[in-house]
Amino acid sequence: MDAKTRGYACPRCTVGRCAPQATTFADVFQGQLLCIPNSRAYICDVCHFAEFEPELLDALWNELYSEAALDDVKPPARHKRGSSYSEGSG
Ligand SMILES: [Zn+2]
User: Fold this and answer.
1) What's the CA-to-centroid distance between 85 and ligand 1, angstroms?
2) What spacing in Å lies between the alpha carbon of 65 and ligand 1's midpoint?
3) Is this structure's pTM higher than 0.70?
């Protein structure tokens, strides 16, 4: 095992540690499955939560939406944090 542990505490399970690894980025773009092998991401060693680098996503969206902008398509929402709904109080 490596003495050095890179990465950060997992934001999802808060138990594991997210370390940089190469994985396959997969997402749905305009109804089509988009796969990019050997993408850099931080992956949790406990719950396998994967968080891709924002730079990768930005570059990706820039490439994709430079063409898609013709159709006036809005990019999908990225990591949503917090609840978007209000709690009912009866
Ligand atoms: Zn985790």
Assistant:
1) 25
2) 31
3) no
